[in-house]
Design brief:
With 741 residues, the protein is of the alpha+beta class. Among the domains are: 75 residues, no CATH class; 163 residues, no CATH class; 93 residues, Orthogonal Bundle (Arc Repressor Mutant, subunit A), CATH 1.10.10; 90 residues. The protein contains 27 helices and 18 strands. The strands form four sheets. Strands 5, 6, 7, 8, 9, 10, 11, 12, 13 and 16 form a ten-stranded mixed sheet that branches. The longest helix has 32 residues. About 2% of the residues have low confidence.
């Protein structure tokens, strides 16, 4: 055996690392060597002592220490024990996406001692490994090896810097989201599918302006919450996300995201899959107008408006109970009927019917144009449109107090006071008409026509003048990109329809609604017993209110028609109120006829077969699993922030943490490991390996030595292609010792 010395230069300092190496011959006779022990960083005295000891061992001599030597001089002191391997794996994943370079470009360091990208990386890694509040993050950070790995002193990771970085992150959020899809495509190519869904998250306390008091999706009442829309690809990588007010309906949230991405080049002809929140006719019209290759499921009450070709009549005679004793047989019976009704079998729990391309009349609404402020450049427009754009710029300057008044504005712009008034008067035009003039929908509009229009206060008269003018003038010359042509009103539209039937879902839905029906009858019987005992002490109105509230709780108001009538007890001749129910058989048949069926509505140009579309829609649990990850693993909620920018930045941190988790899981799925298949399991396995700061003598430098990795940890790192994280030379070369230890 002999001592092998490796030298590493880090800045102006040189470090020496020692290994005990043994020479031997392989079975084929080739001489080689193997490492017996890693001794880490040693001083020159320690290296010489080890060499003397090895020489004495080879010569079979005893090594005698000088009498003045003290055993305490060789006592090893562990100065710190830092969480290492799990944070190092997360940081390596972060770096492989080249996110530090992107964030350094978006948020330049300037005079700040610490790059914002390093603070963001620390916060994202914390959400992956040990999520908690930002106050907890400040206590957690010094107990990890992140100060060494990122070159940050623990005291620099403080509350003030975290707040500042969160505000900076919110400002570059749009640019960050615009860049991520390009990185995914460079690595994996074009997206196979894009999934979209919406969830919510609540606050601890009142929250900021975005937070609105409402019922959460988990059923918590009267919580301040916000909505979160997420768009992800087939691997679960987040593409786009948006934080919205808490009371905004899901369909409107999803429609906002559709409008945001419809012109993005990376989506192209990739199918967009969203749930039945976008399945009503109004939302489908918006999807059609977006030109995206969409796939959604219509709501159950609207299935009949798209087609009446579903074989629901074959299931009318089934009355499943759904109990533990009967459910398996009832599912088999429903499956047999589905197959006999002409539905194609995919497996025991799935049958489908491809209805092909069908025509449906949809109502297309004119989009509400957002007031664009001073976003238009007057130099890119002509005629009256340029005056409208200029008037908006002038108004914005007045609102921001750049000019004291119109007279001051005229003086600074080199215009007469009368000319400024003429320009500003164009803002009397209706806001919607202003947008249409700027978009060129009325062709070239001269300034004199606008002066005539603003003489009328009503939008109808103004629009009439502009439309009459538009019929006889040339189109407007403009360099800004025109808005897409839109249909307005009712138009026949081709849609791709595919229905699928789930026998288990059929049994559960039919049994559940039947139980609700019997519960209404049981409640009415109990109510009549109570009313008979109390006579006429209650009012008719109070009884009707209680009755309607209970039936509404079971969502069966349309099925039952109730009335409260006077009655007389034949034996006692006492008068009392009696509730009478009338069951609507037709409405009941309408409510249950589509049990177990789901009708998929898609773009007519989707190239998939019927069963492929069914499987594609059922894969939307990808985005649902993403939401589950950011809610439970990354701990998105509850929020503790009290300003809108920090709430949005917190959501962005959770989405970046989701990206790291999905990246690790996708890498592990391509291996044969059975124990660690998820990111949390991976981090749990790696967390036992710490970074130890060791000192052998006060006169010598501190040395960083990692805990010996277990076989499971080593195999996991090989699967992640991160074996270098436990290599002593790599650790010594990359670690930057912190001060204060």
């Amino acid at each position: 055996m002999y001592l092998k010395i490796s030298k590493k230069r880090q800045g102006t300092r040189t470090y020496q690392y020692a290994q005990v190496v043994e020479a031997f011959r392989r079975p084929d006779g080739v001489p080689t060597h193997r490492v017996v022990a890693n001794l880490g960083q040693l001083s020159d005295l320690e290296i010489e002592n080890f060499r003397q000891a090895l020489r004495a061992s080879r010569e079979k001599r005893a090594l005698v220490l000088p009498p003045t030597s003290k055993i305490d001089d060789w006592h090893l002191r562990v100065a710190a024990n830092l969480r290492y391997l799990d944070v190092a794996a997360a940081l390596e994943t972060w770096r492989r996406w080249k996110l530090p370079r992107l964030l350094n470009r978006l948020i330049p360091q300037g005079l700040d001692a610490v790059p914002a990208s390093s603070v963001i990386a620390s916060l994202v890694i914390q959400r992956c490994i040990d999520p908690g509040s930002k106050l907890y993050a400040q206590r957690w950070f010094p107990r990890t090896a992140l100060p060494e790995l990122l070159g940050i002193e623990p005291g620099q990771f403080n509350n003030t810097r975290i707040h500042r970085v969160l505000d900076q992150l919110d400002k570059v959020d749009d640019a960050l989201q615009a860049d991520l899809p390009k990185r995914y495509q460079l690595k994996d190519g074009a997206f196979a599918t894009v999934f979209m869904d919406v969830t919510d998250a609540w606050f601890q306390g009142r929250g900021p302006e975005l937070a609105e008091r409402n019922r959460t999706k988990e059923g918590f009442h009267n919580r301040h919450k916000v909505g979160i829309v997420l768009l992800c690809n087939q691997h679960g990588y987040p593409l786009r996300w948006k934080t919205l007010p808490g009371k905004r309906r899901d369909a409107l949230c999803l429609a906002d995201m559709v409008e945001l991405i419809q012109d993005e080049p990376w989506i192209g002809e990739t199918p967009l899959v969203c749930d039945r929140a976008m399945g009503n006719a109004k939302s489908i019209a918006k999807l059609v107008e977006s030109r995206l290759r969409f796939l959604t499921a219509t709501t159950r009450p609207e299935i009949g408006s798209f087609t009446d070709d579903l074989p629901w009549k074959h299931f009318c005679d089934l009355a499943p109970v759904g109990s533990d004793l009967t459910i398996e047989g009832e599912i088999r019976s429903a499956a047999r009927i589905a197959e006999s009704a002409g539905l194609q079998r995919v497996d025991d729990t799935l049958f489908f019917l491809d209805l092909g391309i069908r025509e449906r009349v949809l109502t297309f609404e004119r989009p509400s144009l957002d007031y664009s402020g001073a976003a238009w450049d007057p130099n890119e427009l002509e005629g009256g449109a340029s005056f409208v754009a200029l008037a908006r710029i002038f108004q914005e300057r007045l609102d921001m107090k750049v000019h004291r008044n119109r007279s001051d504005l005229a003086e600074k712009e080199g215009l007469t006071r009368a000319r400024v008034t003429q320009i500003m008067n164009t803002l009397r035009l209706d806001d919607q008409l202003q947008e249409r003039v700027l978009l060129g929908e009325f062709g070239y509009v001269p300034e004199r026509l606008l002066r005539d229009c603003v003489k009328h206060e009503g939008e109808t008269e103004q629009r009439q003048l502009l439309e009459e003018h538009a019929n006889k003038v040339r189109p407007a010359r403009r360099t800004s990109p025109p808005g897409p042509p839109r249909r307005v009103g009712r138009h026949a539209t081709n849609l791709r329809l595919v229905a699928y039937f789930n026998p288990q879902m059929f049994v559960e839905q039919r049994a559940a609604i039947s139980r609700r029906r019997y519960q209404v009858h049981a409640f009415v019987d109990a109510l009549n017993c109570r009313l008979r005992s109390v006579g006429r002490t209650r009012t008719k109105q109070s009884i009707q209110i209680e009755l309607n509230r209970e039936i509404a709780r079971w969502k069966l108001l349309s099925v039952f028609e109730s009335s409260v009538r006077p009655a007389i007890d034949n034996s006692t001749k006492e008068k009392y109120w009696k509730v009478v129910l009338r069951f609507d058989e037709a409405e009941w048949a309408r409510r249950i006829k589509h049990s177990g069926f789901v009708l998929l509505v898609g773009h007519p140009d989707l190239p998939h077969t019927g069963d492929e579309l069914v499987q594609l829609y059922r894969q939307k649990d990808t985005v649902e699993k993403d939401f589950q990850t950011i809610k439970d693993t990354v701990k998105l909620r509850p929020f503790y922030h009290h300003t809108d920018p920090k709430v949005r930045a917190h959501v962005t941190l959770c989405m970046l943490a989701l990206l790291l988790e999905r990246t690790i899981e996708r890498t592990l799925q391509r291996t044969n490991l059975t124990k660690c298949r998820t990111a949390p399991a991976c981090f749990e396995e790696l967390r036992g390996c710490h970074l130890n700061l060791i000192q052998s003598d006060p006169a010598f430098d501190l040395a960083y030595v990692a805990t010996e990795a277990t076989e499971a940890q080593t195999a996991l790192l090989r699967s992640l292609r991160m074996a270098a994280l436990i290599d002593p030379e790599e650790i010594g070369g990359k670690i930057q010792p912190r001060s204060g230890i």
